[in-house]
Design a protein that fits this description.
The structure is a single chain. The protein is an alpha+beta fold and 288 residues long. The protein has two domains: 116 residues, Aminotransferase class 4, branched-chain amino acid transferase, N-terminal domain (D-amino Acid Aminotransferase, Chain A, domain 1), CATH 3.30.470.10; 159 residues, D-amino Acid Aminotransferase, Chain A, domain 2, CATH 3.20.10. The chain contains eight helices and 15 strands. α6 links the parallel β11 and β12. α6 packs across α8. The mean pLDDT is 97. The chain binds pyridoxal-5'-phosphate (PLP). Pyridoxal-5'-phosphate binds next to α6 and β13.
């Protein structure tokens, strides 16, 4: 079994879960999602992910199906039923099924889809050697803080990276601000200081980003949440990207230009190690 799905109150194998063509997620991308990683059966930073989900829902005027406690229980149950220790939990909530008219339908029931798949281990070599990135235009809408299922600009930019043999595409607005990656937040280390774009409508404020910033502060590092331009990126001592599934991934070339000595930097490796420790600490706390 590839994984399990929960749809309309029932658990089933993923391939059996079907949603109507009338779903507004299918018709309009009218919905939001979250991805949570479970380590040893425990969903890491679950509260932060659900806080972000609730915020995204609110901004689209969508209700949370059921309540928060029920959703937490559902996630735990789904992980348990999947039998996977390390898993990716995907949650999607759309406005529901209705005839295709743009304005919000009356009396519609949101569609909640939850899936759990085995988290495929990311090859260790990527962390040892670092990955490459390209820089491309940020063509997304103005509310990147909403974790909307409308991901077409991200998909196109990621495909551009893939075709260039790169791991990630780093997005830059027309005014020269580096915002984030297609599926990640971007960090730069320069003269011992950690830079990343500020929270707000231009980025999705990553849960991993927040944990990494917290760890860096704890280590006494100066953290600067301000936009920087692509020149800062390529002249950085270190670059790394973060997200729920890859955690802290070193980037060693940007547009084929080497970053530092083209090896994962010390700060990046240190933060990646602290992040792993944080996962363990979280698990221990959850078990108490
Ligand atoms: C555009 C974008 N930015 C940042 C992130 C990182 O978010 P998180 O660390 O919560 O996974 C993601 C994750 O999917 C993303 O899609």
């Amino acid at each position: 079994m590839e994984g399990i799905a929960y749809l309309e109150g029932v658990f089933m194998p993923i391939e059996k879960a079907k949603v109507s063509i009338e779903d507004r997620g299918f018709q309009f991308s009218d919905g939001v999602y979250e991805v949570i990683k479970a380590y040893n059966g425990i969903p890491f930073a679950c509260e932060a992910h659900l806080d972000r989900l609730e915020r995204s829902l609110k901004l689209l005027d969508l209700p949370l199906p059921g309540n928060r406690r029920e959703l937490e229980g559902l996630i735990d149950e789904a992980i348990l039923r999947s039998g996977f220790q390390d898993a990716l939990v995907y949650l999607q909530i759309t406005r529901g099924y209705a005839p295709r008219l743009h304005d919000f339908p009356d009396n519609v029931k949101p569609t909640l889809v939850l899936t759990v798949r085995r988290a495929r281990p990311i090859p260790g070599k990527l962390y040892e050697d670092g990955v490459s990135a390209i820089v491309t235009r940020d063509e997304r809408w103005l509310r990147c803080d909403i974790k909307s299922i409308c991901l077409l600009p991200n998909v196109l930019a990621k495909e551009k990276a893939s075709r260039a043999g790169a791991f990630e595409a780093i997005l830059v607005r027309d005014d020269g601000r580096v915002t984030e990656g297609t599926t990640s937040n971007v960090f730069v280390v320069k003269s011992g200081k950690l830079h990343t774009a500020p929270p707000g409508n231009w980025i999705l404020s990553g849960v991993t980003r927040a944990v990494v910033l917290g760890l860096a502060c704890r280590e006494g590092m100066t953290t600067i949440e301000e936009f920087f331009d692509p020149k800062v990126l390529v002249s950085a001592d270190e670059v790394f990207v973060t997200n729920t599934s890859i955690e802290v991934m070193p980037v060693v070339t940007v547009d084929r230009q080497p970053i530092g000595n083209k090896k994962p930097g010390e700060v990046t490796q240190h933060l990646a190690k602290l992040f792993k420790e944080e996962i363990l600490r979280y698990k221990q706390q959850a078990e108490i």
